[in-house]
Amino acid sequence: MIGNRIKLAREACGWSLRDLEAKIEGLVSAQAIGKYERNEMTPSSKVLLALATALGVEPEFLLSEKEIEPAVDFRKAPAEGARDERSVNAMVLDAAERYLELESIFPDTRITWSAPHFAEFKLTKVEDAEAAAERLRSICGSESRRSNP
Q: CB 3.0–4.6 Å: which of 30, 82, 85, 138 could bond 17 by disulfide?
């Protein structure tokens, strides 16, 4: 439904209902946007276009009926807030939906993926994964983003 799409796009931006209200310059209230997200009301075409523009998505995205089950599992950093978690969930779901859409358009085109061959990251047991993750974080300069299981 359109409400789920509006909420998904808003959360991907990391915005509150009031943030989105401000982005569309008060065209409708945060309460109205909340009603759209709960599918209690349907936005007019003018509001739909304003929402799509503010959210950086095509109006067709908001009107799409395709949905996947929203279950995203990931390790959380201790400092991550609920808003950041919702934003990550929304971005992952959006990317998965886009991938599945492409897969449905080109059903006979399968890309085989193989893991990069880095001797430095060979894993033979579960414990090797944490050491590899630590090394990768140091290479990327993101040691401060270490998360706890």
A: 30
Give the global pTM: 0.54
CATH architecture designation of domain 1-114: Orthogonal Bundle (1.10)
Cβ–Cβ contacts within 10 Å for residue 48, how many? 17
The domain spans of the chain are 1-114
Q: Mapping DSSP to helix (H, G, I), strand (E, B) and coil, where does residue 100 land?
A: helix
Q: Which of 9, 6, 10, 43 has its CA nearest to residue 28?
A: 43
Task: Please state, in angstroms and rounded to a whole number, the distance separating the CA atoms of residues 84 and 121.
Answer: 29
DSSP structure class, residue 101: H
Torsion angle of the four alpha carbons 47, 49, 52, 56, in this order, in degrees rounded to the nearest 10: -130
